Amino acid sequence: MPTKIFGHNVKKLSYSVNAKQYSFAGHRVTVPLNRNRWYKIWLIGNPCRLVINDELIVCKHPVLFFANPLVSYAYDSLQDKRWGYWCVFTREFLAVNDTLGRFRAYPELAPASTMLLFPEPEQLAVVKMLFEQLTVAVNARFAFSNEMIFNYIQLLIFEAMKGGTQSAPAGHPDAAVRITRQFLQLLEEQFPIQSPDQPMQLRTPADFARRLAIHVNHLNTTIRNMTGQTTTQHIAAAKIAEAKALLRHSNFTIGAIGEGLGFNCPNHFFRFFKQNSGLTPLAYRTKANSLI
Length: 292
Fold this sequence. Notes:
The chain is an alpha+beta fold. The protein has helices spanning 91-97, 121-140, 145-162, 174-189, 205-212, 216-227, 231-249, 254-260, 266-277, 281-289; strands spanning 3-5, 17-24, 28-34, 39-44, 48-52, 55-59, 63-67, 73-76, 82-89, 115-117. The strands form two sheets. It has a five-stranded mixed sheet with strand order 1-3-8-5-6, with no helix packed on it. It has a five-stranded antiparallel sheet with strand order 2-9-4-7-10.
């Protein structure tokens, strides 16, 4: 059977959110390796192959997949019959509904990260039920539908946490939540790099602290306590994710990519990339282009 290219569209609504149940047969389907501008929660019911950033994963059982705008992924259904549910939503949707930033501090939605959950039959039934209710709320569009949509998305994340995912920190002061939200949003806004002539503006913890008008030590302590990772680790992970995406999807030279990420010396970018990925930028670009 022929293979079709498959993609998701964000519904043209005021808060940019969509959800759908699907069940098809007759065509094997692929999603090319790429990044999107939205967050996505995807329950894939059929056996499939996923390439997430540079990792190949073969899923023989239903899988719940979380992705954010910094995650590159590809999908191959491996068979003609396929079923599942998906939900996509934008940063604007979160900004309206997640005013305290608690939602975006969850590890499932953190920049440069992703998560897979393989639910057992009982949990799979709960996840399907939540997706069905979420789809109804998206299509109904009544007075409080956005609140209901947001709540169902949170319930899907809570179900994933039950499967062994590290839960979001709880009980922190609102000031710490606000700082974490602002830092993660500022970090996400540094990408994608459209041109080496428009490099990252905020490159170090001190840069972010100045923008947030707080001491860098306070920023570092807050981010570490709220997320379990240091500010430097978050920045490095985001830089590596962007570097990998540019090596895969752009024609920029390796030197230009390093310059766009704030490395004035190509050797500094070379060492940074190899230290964090285990490969040189050229070796990674060659390997990534052979995956799909």
